[in-house]
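Weekly sync, protein design subgroup
Attendees: M.S., D.O., the rotation student, P.L. (late)

Item 1: inverse folding check
M.S. brought a backbone from last month's batch and wanted to see whether the design step gives back something sensible before we order anything. D.O. pointed out we never logged the input encoding, so this time it goes straight into the notes. Structure tokens as presented (131 positions):
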């Protein structure tokens, strides 16, 4: 039996904050933003609600290998990410269409999800190094 999860104002605020940013924030960043509206919130509540949002497929984790859990609420299109190894910024990027992906995957394998991260240096950091 599937458990019924009640709606939560704090969870809705977490989702609203994530939907309003493209920065792929950490739990601590999200916690600081939610705390502005709900000063009594604890970080454990943020973790618990992020877990629920993940289970509901309303957000997903972006792993760029920096040891920090980053979150993305952009569920409208499948996309990859670019990670700047200098400043740590994470940018969205278009990736191949599903039809093209299907042609690359073996016939005996069914893709449920994928993660694509390019590592490099963003324009801002490159420009700073020129100075």
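Designed sequence read out in the meeting:
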């Amino acid at each position: 039996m599937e458990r019924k999860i009640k709606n939560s104002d704090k969870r809705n605020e977490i989702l609203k904050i994530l939907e309003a940013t493209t920065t792929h924030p950490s739990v601590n960043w999200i916690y600081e933003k939610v705390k502005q509206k709900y000063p009594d919130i604890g970080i454990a509540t943020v973790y618990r609600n992020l877990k629920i949002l993940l289970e509901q497929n309303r957000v997903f984790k972006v792993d760029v290998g920096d040891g920090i859990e980053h979150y993305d609420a952009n569920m409208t299109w499948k996309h990859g990410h670019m990670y700047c190894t200098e400043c740590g910024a994470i940018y969205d990027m278009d990736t191949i269409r599903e039809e093209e992906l299907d042609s690359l995957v073996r016939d005996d394998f069914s893709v449920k999800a994928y993660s694509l991260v390019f590592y490099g240096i963003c324009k801002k950091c490159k420009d700073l190094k020129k100075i």
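Discussion: The chain is about 40% helix and 15% strand. Helices lie at 9-19, 27-37, 43-55, 98-104, 123-130.
Action: P.L. to compare against the previous round before Friday.
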